[in-house]
Amino acid sequence: MIIKNKTVVEDDWRILRLNEQDAPDSVSVPSGKVIVPLKVWQAQRDTLKTRAELGVWLESSETAEDLQGDIARFQVIAVDFPRFADGRGYSIAYHLRERLGYQGELRAIGEVLRDQMFYLQRVGFDAFVPRPDKDIHEVLKGLSDFSETYQASVDQKVPLFRRVHRGVKV
Amino acid sequence: MYRYDQFDHQMVAERVAQFRDQVRRRLSNELTEDEFRVLRLQNGLYMQIHAYMLRIAVPYGLLSAAQMRMFAHIARKYDRDYGHFTTRQNVQFNWIKLPDAPDILADLATVEMHATQTSGNCIRNITCDEFAGVAKDEIVDPRPYAEILRQWSTFHPEFAYLPRKFKFSMTGAMTDRAAIAVHDVGLQVVKNARGEVGFRVLVGGGLGRTPVIGTEICAFVPWQHAITYLESIVRVYNEHGRRDNMYKARIKILVKEIGIEEFRRQVEADWKFTKDGPCTLTVEELERVAACFTAPSYETLADSDVAAAQPGNTAFANWLQRNVKPHKVSGYASVVLSLKKPGMAPGDATAQQMEAAAELAERFSFGELRITHEQNLVLADVRQADLFTLWQAATERDMATPNIGLLTDIISCPGGDFCSLANARSIPLARAIAACFDNFDFLHDIGELDLNISGCVNACAHHHIGHIGILGVDKDGEEWYQVSIGGAQGNTSSIGKIIGKSFKFGQIPEVIARLLQVYVDERFDDERFIDTVRRLGYEPFKAYVYATPVEDDAELAGPIYDLLKQGTPYELPYYSPRF
Q1: A-to-B residue pairs, Cβ atoms closer than 8 angstroms
Q2: Which residue of B has its CA nearest to A161?
Q3: How far are the Cα atoms of B233, B245, B305, B409 from residue B263, in angstroms, in the given order?
Q4: Structurally, what CATH architecture does the domain formed by A2-163 represent?
Q5: pLDDT tens digit string along A36-64?
Q6: Which of B474, B458, B463, B450 is nearest to B497 (CA)?
Q7: Is A152 in contact with B273 (Cβ distance < 8 A)?
Q8: Does B238 contact chain A (CB < 8 Å)?
């Protein structure tokens, strides 16, 4: 189960993670709906690009620009959070959406917890795979912590000061 | 000052509810301490030696009498009758119990305050010139911009998990009173040749383990582009700042490693996508916010010779000389209420003093106060005719010590008495120094001298930019102190140089006496200590300090250090890793 479009849904994508002995150019990519590491995509591009359904995931040390020119090939792009406090994934998501114009599913994987959900959604994630030990319905609640925001981001392109009439009512 | 509208109120209320639920989940063990730590820090809650410490944001150091009264209420209801004003213009309470923290935040929300982002690896409270809006040398009032940036940085979704903390400081005056050169980003609001307002932007300054003076990244960013430009700086840092070593994670290290030209290139490459976009500031928004910072209804008054009206009153004359600052409006003055009475912890105020300060603000200064990064309070708009009455009232509450800018106006972190990061005590050392140099004539003769004491290398008391800086270091479990001289804040910021091997607690007053002796012997007429150090270099000071053994007056240190290690724990879970 994952969270997608603000509900808990079934999901049949598999995330391929490399073990220590796996090399990106030789690891076997299972058939079906697989989200492969960026390095595997880059190493096996010629064979993988024939697949009808393919996803790719980025490590937090990689950048959105590494996918430039390819983003339309993927049904899913995922960004890994090795630790929830590693905030690079937020800027990767921002770049994918704002700079590269990625419109498809953007999935947060790794250490995805309730208390980061609101910000994750703001920078453009629309699918979330919570850490397995957490109750997914609890995690879902994190999406609605706030009902208004000051600054623009991916979810709201216009800052508050341009959207509403502000000021103390007298 | 800025007043919350319905949107500000709503977001702060939702933040309180969010944190209340996080505390509930921590207490029921749904959240581990590792998961919770980051959340509580972003709400200003630290785990210290004795209890939790709550750091409350005072945006750009400006607050109302009602807000100051709320601090007194918090001190009485949830703490031990006192609080501590910090070098980042915030206030800290030292004896907080975790289950009380959400209630405190709810109380704060009633007076339009919060503790959001006062800690954690995010954009912190933006500090500002304490004389903003009233200083004679001001070019542009920076407060509306500080408030606009406060709102932009509050709950910024992309920048809550930066490599490390991120501090802005801002000034709009000729004289930098906000130490902008030693912040991650320093902003100087300026006017260009055509009279247009913009920002001179410094980046990569900071203290801590690697003190660095900030470098100019842009001489003039038009005010409309402040948000998009600064956002690009923080974005480049978020992506490329080091995360492998927390001591190398601040933006100053990134800027040093790739160089200012490359860093500027990356910022500008990012900025071109957002420049002139929807986040460009509007005149309407600037005017809405600036309307909160209009001048109070000053009377038309002439300047007067206040000292002459009290002939023979040297105590008052001393106070006028040290604690009263010029005001841009004739007939008015700004007053610094000293929180540095010898014997008191620097920056501490009792609940009674907080209430007294609030009352003085209402009586004499349009109901507003400021907190200085030197840990004092300011009443910015006092009629000169009221100065004598104000002085009498402040004296009654021990807030009129005439020592602003002098040796005993010591800047000190909480140190080993409270802070779990500290290597050594700061407050007792400040007290010992103040006790040894208690002669006002001597202090006035020595003149302007910044003495900063940090209990560890994190440099909360800015010891690198003290004319005399003292840093607590740990040697085999014992507290020692490293002494540096030649540091300075302001327009000619510099990082102090360590004079030699470190000292015991009981040696420090004698070390300071020797440094001052060299100064007194060598100074020209009006030369300040820092100027003499700059002229002579630090060698003559070092030579004299180390020429003969420095006696260790062990009584000064007292037996308290050992007692501190035991503390007085609360009977509560999740309270401190030390016990």
Answers
A1: 113
A2: B285
A3: 9, 20, 52, 38
A4: 3-Layer(aba) Sandwich (3.40)
A5: 999 999 999 999 999 999 999 999 999 99
A6: B463
A7: no
A8: yes
Residues of A within 8 A of B38 (CB-CB) are: 84-85
CB distance B279–A151 less than 8 Å? yes
Determine the Cα angle at B441 with ends B435 and B444, to 5°.
Answer: 95
Cα within 13 Å of Cα(B488), Cβ side: 16
Q: Which pTM does this prediction carry?
A: 0.95
pLDDT tens digits, residue range B98-150? 999 999 999 999 999 999 999 999 999 999 999 999 999 999 999 999 999 99
Q: How far is B185 from chain A (nearest CA, A)?
A: 19
Tally of residues, chain B: 579
Whether A87 and B160 lie within 8 Å, measured CB to CB = yes
Q: And the tokens for B260?
A: 């200012």
Residue of chain A whose alpha carbon sits nearest to that of B290? A167
Kindly determine whether residue A115 and residue B279, on different chains, have CB atoms separated by under 8 Å.
no
Whether residue B409 has pLDDT greater than 70:
yes
Q: Report pLDDT digits (tens) over B438-470.
A: 998 999 999 999 999 999 999 999 999 999 999
Please tell me the total number of residues recorded for chain A in this structure.
Answer: 170
Q: What CATH number is associated with residue B462?
A: 3.30.413.10
CA distance to partner chain B, nearest, from residue A86 (Å): 6
User: Side chain identity at B152, as an amino acid letter?
Assistant: W
Q: Domain spans of chain A?
A: 2-163
